Amino acid sequence: MELKRERVREHLLTVIESRRPGDAIPSERTLCATLGVSRPTLRAAVDELVATGLLVREHGRGMFVAPVKVTQELVAEHQAAGAPRSRGDWTSTVLELRTVRAGARIGRRLAISPAAELVHVTRLRRVDGAPIALEHLHVPADLVPGLTAADMEGGFYAHLRERRGIRPAHAVQSIEPTVLSEEEAALLDVPVLSPALLFDRTTTDPSGRPVEYVRSLYRGDRYRIVSRLALGDGATDDPKGDGPRADEARGGTWWGTVE
């Protein structure tokens, strides 16, 4: 069953991306009628987008698209970034796999028509048996005909390389703080409104063709990002061993899982 809040969130994100900062979005009553959901379900999704800085709620006036965020890139555009696997035994359980229309927002991310079909996979990631992440993957259907749940319970990038002849080469990823809904918290075995990290990633092959769009929620109490940065030409060896070294790559590297 599709997570209801995920559907509401996707609609709200589409509305936000179609407007400019400061523009109003439809009222709660209008959105509930459009989506066929209850007021509490809608408010839970709105609360998350307010908490992550995408919407602003003004008492007595309504809801508005938030100002543009200040963005800090950890790795310069033309620098390579490694992504070694995190420690532990990572496993995946597919909760849902279905073929749907891309829609406007995800269609833009994958550079396909809103009417084009994509495979939407929701999977629960575990480390040493403990749930740590909930992932929503979107892949153009014509790239993965016949994709099964079993295919998605291993490393997806390995599947693309070895079974589909597709080589993921580049990715643009953002990371933001958020909180978990009741459904998400139950799946990740944490209290409602627990902190989480929201990953938003689009991956392309060597030609620049998008091959996946992924939205992931990682438990804030079990996952962190560490960056190792070399500070330009002035980086030198640190005698204490806790600073940047001149022989390290100019740029940054983040540690995490992208499989």
Provide the fold topology.
Elements: H1 4-17, H2 28-35, H3 39-51, E1 55-58, E2 62-65, E3 90-101, H4 103-110, E4 117-127, E5 130-140, H5 156-164, E6 170-179, H6 182-188, E7 195-204, E8 210-219, E9 227-230, E10 251-254
Antiparallel strand pairs: 1-2, 3-4, 4-5, 5-8, 6-7, 7-8, 9-10
Helix pairs in contact: 1-3
Shape: globular
In round numbers, the mean pLDDT is 84
Structural class: alpha+beta
Q: What is the helix content?
A: 10-25%
Strand order of the largest sheet: 3-4-5-8-7-6
How does this model look, in words?
The protein is an alpha+beta fold. 23% of the residues lie in helices and 31% in strands. The protein is built from 6 helices and 10 strands; from the N terminus they run H-H-H-E-E-E-H-E-E-H-E-H-E-E-E-E. The chain has helices spanning 4-17, 28-35, 39-51, 103-110, 156-164, 182-188, and strands spanning 55-58, 62-65, 90-101, 117-127, 130-140, 170-179, 195-204, 210-219, 227-230, 251-254. The strands form 3 sheets. Strands 3-4-5-8-7-6 form a 6-stranded antiparallel sheet. The protein has a two-stranded antiparallel ribbon with strand order 1-2. Helix 1 crosses helix 3 (39-51). It is globular and about 55 Å long. The two termini are 24 Å apart. Mean pLDDT is 84; it is low at 80-84 and 237-259.
